[in-house]
Amino acid sequence: MVMESSFIPQELLSPIRQQKVYLQIVKQFIELIEKGEFSAGMQLPPERELARRLGVSRASLREALTVLQMMGLVETVAGQGTFLTGKSAASVKYSLDSISVGESPFVIIQARKTVEPSIASFAALHRSEASLKKITEILDWVESDHSKDRILGNIFSEGDRQFHLEIAKATENPILISIQEIFHSLMGQDLWLTMMRHTSFATIGRWEEAYQEHHMILEAIRQRDARAAAHCARAHLQRVEKIMIEADLIPNIPPNKDTEGIDNHLSSERRGHR
Questions:
Q1: Nearest-angstrom CA–CA distance, 45 and 74
Q2: 19-100+250-265 belongs to CATH 3.40.50.300
Q3: How many CB atoms lie within 10 A of CB 165?
């Protein structure tokens, strides 16, 4: 018997992609909300306990909590804790599909720690007076008199992105500039910006601290001190990462009786820790 040759239609097959851990956590919350297992006002357990129960790293949990906050499914009440809002996933502003395209903030900061110190070092060796002027103008613009809300929402984040991009431009190396442009784009994503608002921007004194860190990087570049420029850039990014990990997304408030209800419904997500 001779079989006629035919091919499986290409449109019936979809690429297999490994799902990010934080998205698995978010989907579990959404499923439990839609099933009615989670109800409005239920309090989330402390962050370390919640990460342990899910079997994930705190980094993945923090990304998931940020997405849930963006979707309006959880909210933090000062002095009381973090609670489920009772909203359905279908009724909120952000859909999970739109958020899924955002890269992990912790993956972004890891890449930046690897690359940006070298960019700063190279900029120190190749910068011009014109490039120094542009970097200085960005810092002056960020420091100028803006309302607090505008700083946290727009000025600081945009100034930070432009500051690091201008350092790359000072290298006059098109490849390094292209790499920093990728970071510039990633740092404009909703997931990164929301994580920053809930961690770095919300940390008392961080605004002034970051401004000083930026000036130290600039001064090293001005002095053509490549080693110092790399050191200052690395220290700056390590501080950003430290705050991303340690700032309170879920206040360490003694749980109420509803916390146990949430804990009983959650299942462990053991598909790779970060």
A1: 12
A2: no
A3: 20
